[in-house]
Amino acid sequence: MPLLAQHQDAGTTGFSTLKIIYSARANGMGQAMLGRAKNFDGMQFNPASIIRVPNQGVFTTFADHFVGSGGGSVSYVVPKNIYTSYGFYLNYWNSGSIDRTDVGTNGEFIELNDTFNAQDILAGFTLAKFVSPALDAGGSIKFVLDQIDDKSASAVLIDIGILHHTANERIKVGLSAKNLGFQISHYSDKKYDEGIPFTYGAGFGIDVGKNTLLNIDITKANGENFIGKFGVEQQIHPSLVLRGGFKTNAGDYYLGGNMEWTSGISLGVGWIWKKIALDYAVASYGDLGLTNQVSIRYNIE
Where on the tree of life does the source sit, at the highest rank (predicted)? Predict the structure, then answer.
């Protein structure tokens, strides 16, 4: 099944906002982060990668999406010592106002002059441990509540991951599996299983040079093809980095318009001032439009 094609079962799982990644740094690098060590954003990708982050950090991300929807996250990571790190995070998303409609006898949509919205919230705890000089391991437990109008569903899930430190200190290898778990409440009394987007992947974090990082991931979620993700980060000043990335599921957003050629491309910039890190990313979804993310981190020494 080609990387650039759309899967025949695309859009068939529930809890779809679990696929949204809240990290401006990561989105500027094509969301390729599974093999990046000492990673403040690791709770969104590979829970093993938060170990040995240089300091405590409190950070938040704000994201816009399509047709008025948006969301974000709030996170806190603590490196207890060289053997253990842990963190907490909260992700949230809201659809904005959606026009309520009904279906007429001839199949036509009827405006009801009313609106509703959809939203979800996810709370998680992550723990990462040193296993050996060559291996770190981590896991997250999380609770997600998904709501549409006055109906809701919820699930309890876990993520697991490992990070391998290869013989070449410039190369790390990460593996992760996300959204393992079960639904605990349902949208209706029929208890229909919405389907949870189980996702797994592998990635490389490569220090190409002193100031140049390269990340390469391949991931697979239920209802999707394998997706290749590529990202590069270049430090051009002690306080400034530039980023670029690409995702191979660009074909999902080819709609025949003038902007489809940009689909899958992302760009980002990062700035550090004293204890504050500020990141921005813009990602193209072809003719659907652009999404933006801004992340702010405060480093606690």
Answer: Bacteria
Q: Residue 95, class by beta-carbon neighbours within 10 Å (0-12 exposed, 13-18 middle, 19+ buried)?
A: buried
DSSP-derived letter for residue 6 is P
Which pLDDT band, with edges at 50, 70 and 90, does 266 fall under? very high
Q: What is the DSSP string of 139-180?
A: EEEEEEEEEETTEEEEEEEEEEEEEEE-SSTTEEEEEEEEEE
Q: Which long-range contacts (CB under 8 A, 24 or more apart) does 105-112 make?
A: none
User: pLDDT by residue (tens digit) across 96-132?
Assistant: 766 666 777 776 677 777 677 788 999 999 999 999 9
Rounded CA-CA distance 80/127 in Å is 10
Q: CB–CB of 228/250 below 8 Å?
A: no
Q: Quote the DSSP letter at residue 253.
A: G
The rounded distance, in Å, linking the Cα atoms of 218 and 111 is 43
Q: What percent of the chain has pLDDT over 70?
A: 90
φ/ψ region of 112 (left if φ > 0, alpha if ψ in -120 to 50, else beta) reads: alpha
Q: For the residues of 7-60, what is the DSSP string, one character each?
A: PTTTT-SS-GGGG----HHHHHTTT--TT-SS-TTGGGT-GGGGTT-SSEEEEE
For domain 16-300, give the CATH superfamily. Outer membrane protein transport protein (OMPP1/FadL/TodX) (2.40.160.60)
Count CA atoms closer than 13 A to 109's CA, side-chain side.
Answer: 5
- pLDDT tens figures, 37-53: 999 999 999 999 999 99
